Every structure is written in structure tokens, then in C-alpha cells.
Amino acid sequence: MRNFLIAGNWKMNRNAAETATFFNELSADLKKVPNGVDVLICPVYTSLQAAVETSSKINGFKIGAQNMHFEDSGAFTGEITADMIRETGADYVIIGHSERRQYFAETDETVNKKTIKAIDKGLIPVICVGEHLSERKENKHFDVVKHQVVEAYKNVATGDVSKTVIAYEPVWAIGTGETATSEQAQEMHRFIRSEMEKLYDANTANAVQILYGGSMKPENAGELLECEDVDGGLIGGASLKPDSFLKMIKTASELKK
Ligand code: PEP
Fold this sequence. Notes:
The protein is of the alpha/beta class. The chain is built from eleven helices and eight strands. The chain has helices at 16-29, 48-55, 82-87, 98-103, 108-120, 133-137, 141-152, 182-199, 202-207, 218-225, 242-256; strands at residues 4-9, 37-42, 62-65, 92-95, 124-129, 165-168, 209-213, 232-235.
């Protein structure tokens, strides 16, 4: 069966010193990532090194970046390559977060290029998809998410799908305090898995982790993680404090027993 993945997206928060403090506090209560649960934090680039070093006190803890460029080098001021992220010791990278799509001109095409490059370089891409509120109101949410998934996985080989993660993040639920109901989350996760089965095959679709993202917090993590096709969370605000992040790791590990 699939492991849960409890993933924190720190966005533009926590410098290197604050990152070290977070992991010093967390490691006082967590020595090892629980069985059946993968745990990941994605800090800002300048905190990656500190995160890799200070999270090493927690056995099995993973670190990731929040974005990358799809080229290997060149005149791309302000950008970073997959190799540079790997050099810090990070293993994951978030691709196509809705804030990147909304504010930084990320497109389905660049998401696909980045996905392919990340896999090629040994980084696990956490590919974000999700509809805007207006699209849900117009009943277009399944079409929107299907399109994003199909485009992201263009030219991704069957054998590489297990090296990827999908995060369903309804844009209207990110940072708003508004959460999708567990029924809405399960319905979309099942839909995404069925689309992956059409693109690939049942085994591949059943193996891929599909995370929910959008105001997940300790109070609602249990009911979301209980859904059959919800394999974890991509968590913004509630991942910034060690105690709240730890509660969600514990919820996931209880559900795995
Ligand atoms: C996110 O950053 O992907 C996210 C889901 O944020 P929040 O949990 O704060 O809604």
C-alpha cells in the first residue's frame, strides 16, 4: 500500500536560523519518521542547507525545494537548477504550485518541462494541480484538473511515475482557512487516480501518492487522511510550527496502524 506523505510548504517564511530552531524543537519529540509515513519540509532556497543538516537528527526526514528551472544552466537570472538543489542534499521539489502559476507565469508547459528535468536529475517532483473557485462554480473543476494532470505527465514514462507525487490543491482552499470537505477531496483524488489509470495502468495509478493541500491543519487532518485516495497533505501555514506539524505526522501514523 501507499505510504502517507506529510509535506510542509513553507513558502517565503523561515530563514536559516529559524529553520534550525524548528528542527531542533521537532527533533526533541521526533527521532524517526514513523513507519508508513514519509515526511517532507520544503523551505526557501537559502534555508535548504540548514534544513538538510538540522533535520538529519530525525531518521528518514526529507527536504525539498519549492521550485526549479528546467534548464541545466544559462542566463536565467534569479533561477536555480535541479543539480543545485540536489547538491544541498534535498530530494524533492514542488512544481507548479498555484502561487507560481498565478504570480510567476508558470504554465502547464513549464510544469511538464520541470517535471521531466526533476525526474532526470533524481528529484521527486510534487506536481500541484487544482481549480479556481470560479471553475468549481461553473462545474469545470474535473476538466481543469484533468488537463493539468495530462499536460504535466506528457512524455513521462510509466516506470517514472512512482518517482512523482501529485498534490491536489483547490486554489480556493489555499491559505484561506477554507478546506475542501473530505467528500470533495476524495471525489477529486479518485478522479485523478482514474485519469492516471487511463494515462498509464492500474498498478501505476494505485502506486502514486496523491496529496491534498488547502488549509490542512491538525483539526481537519484526520478526516481528510481517512479518505481512501488521500495519501497525505501539502501543508502551508500549519507546517510552520513544530507542534502542529508533529500532530499531523502522528495522525497519519495512527491511521497507518
Ligand atoms: C500550500 O501552500 O500549498 C497550502 C496548501 O497552504 P495552506 O495549507 O496554508 O492553505
